[in-house]
Write a structure and sequence with these properties.
The complex is a heterodimer. Chain A is α/β, with parallel strands linked by helices. Chain A contains five helices and five strands; from the N terminus they run βαβαβαβαβα. The radius of gyration of chain B is 53 Å and the shape is rod-shaped. The chains are: A alpha/beta, B alpha+beta. The structure holds adenosine-5'-triphosphate and magnesium ion (MG).
Chain lengths: 126, 484
Amino acid sequence: MDAKKIMVIDDENIVGKMIKATFERDGYVVEKFLNAKPALERLREQKFDVVITDLKMRDVDGMEVLKIVKKEFPATKVIMITAFANMDTSVEAFRKKADDFFPKPVKISDLKARIKGLLEGEERPA
Amino acid sequence: MKLVYKIILANTLGIIIIILISVFSYHEFNMLKAKLSFVEIADTLNASFLKMRLAEKNYFLYKDVSSLQLIKAEIRRSKDMTGGMKRKIIVAVGHENFTGLVRRLDHYAEEIDKIGTSDKIGISGQDIKNRQLSVREAGRDLKLFSGSMVRLERKKVNGIISASLDGLLYFFSLAILVAIMGTYLFFSNMFRNLSRIERATNSISKGNFNKIAEWKMPNNELGSVMRAINSMCDELQTRHEKLIQSRKLASIGILTAGVAHELGNPLNNISMVAQTFLELYDDLPDEERLEYMETVLQECGRIKDIVKNLLDFSKPKDTEFRVLDINAIIKKTLKLVRNMINVAGIKTELDLQEKLPEVFIDEDKIQGVLVNLINNAIQAMSAKGTLFIRTIRQEKEDKVIIEIEDTGKGIPPEFLSNIFDPFFSTKGTEGTGLGLSISYGIIKRHNGKIRVKSKVGVGTTFIIELPVYISKEEGDGCEEDHGD
Ligand SMILES: Nc1ncnc2c1ncn2[C@@H]1O[C@H](COP(=O)(O)OP(=O)(O)OP(=O)(O)O)[C@@H](O)[C@H]1O
Ligand SMILES: [Mg+2]
């Protein structure tokens, strides 16, 4: 079986770097992006199993990324992370069919478990 | 002195002068009337005396008895007249002159009588001659006396007239002088105080709550007005400060969302680095372990900066002027608002002139101004906007210029004159309309200027000019806050 591909989009470089470091040891392929635009372009040439995106970024809003990904690649799982979570944004994220929503600081083990579950066909939380 | 008293005093003074003039004129005119009526009497008498003397001559020349009859008639008339007009004559010429006149008239009458009797009896020629002589003497005496008296009185009348003229002139000049002096003393003070009040209210309407100096206050109604203005100033000042404070709190509210984001990111970074560090510990080469820990420290530094900025912003500080570099303050301020700018999706372009001369400013206040202007710029732009911040040195006038330009919707020309007014806002409940008015006041207190250039649909530029700090040896222009 091919290695599962994960994309991380966050303008905080460290987030991508750490996810890449920990997830690659578990056998995933991770690509990290600081901006949404190049990430979306990459998505169009390469299928990813999971997209982890920050909610608030300079160029394109994380919600926008979620919308585009869910429209163009419905099979791709999307996990939102944000440093500024409130009820409204998480509700909106789920309404836009996000597969999960993680407030920062993110617990990597939780993220791993969740991604593993998602890839094994677990339903997204209600 | 109270204004009412001043007005009463001025009026009383005027009335006194008018009464004095009237009394003086009344007295003078009465005097004149008496003298004139005497001159009239004296003229009649003189005419009588003249007739007597003519008749006297005729009598001596032609021995005409009817002439003697005429003289006697004239004497009677004259006596009647002097008797009848006694009081008037005395008033005009005095008792002594009156008796002198009466005595001479009587004497003449006696002499005439003697002539009349001597003719009938027949006396020696020598005697007759002697009597004629004494008659002539008495006649001349009477005529001369009355003539000189009339001349004297005419002179006196002329004297009275010119004295009254002088007197009136004197009184009028006094009245004019008093009026002018009074106006000056009374009104110049009042006008000075009124214009002081005008200046004070004008400066209040411009947002400077400068009080009127206590020692300049007159002890009258205007003084009470000034005191009322001063207590209004105090009240406005405290309210103004409260408003500024509450505005600060409000902007903190706006900032909190940003701050949560701003703090959340480094916190997350630290957490993720630590988790990865723990998980990968055994596999990590030494230099990567060090790198991880350095990243942690860096992120801690980020948090520290944010917290410090936040504290700086919220802490109510007294004004504290220091010599500072404006570029550094702009950078500091940008850190504070960076997240807001990011969230709004706005680009920033800095063009800060190097080696900018320092300015003598209250850092907190200037930072407040910058935050306000940046806030307005952000609110005026859609996501595609760019915020330009420039600093320029203007050597000619020893000024530092800060330009904050946005590519926002611009300000319609009809609003341009209002935007610095307190409470002018086009943002409804979203804006207090205080941002620019407070900023204006702050820049003014720095002896600086703030201007705006704007084009609808293109953008807006706010231009701040601050005087360059000149050290003590070169002169000190920065310390005093010159009022208007
Ligand atoms: N950069 C700008 N572009 C367009 N309009 C502006 C700009 N800056 C100010 N204005 C106009 O000037 C008005 C007054 O600004 P001011 O900062 O005093 O108050 P406000 O922004 O409405 O309220 P607050 O500052 O409390 O948010 C604004 O309502 C807006 O109409
Ligand atoms: Mg404003």
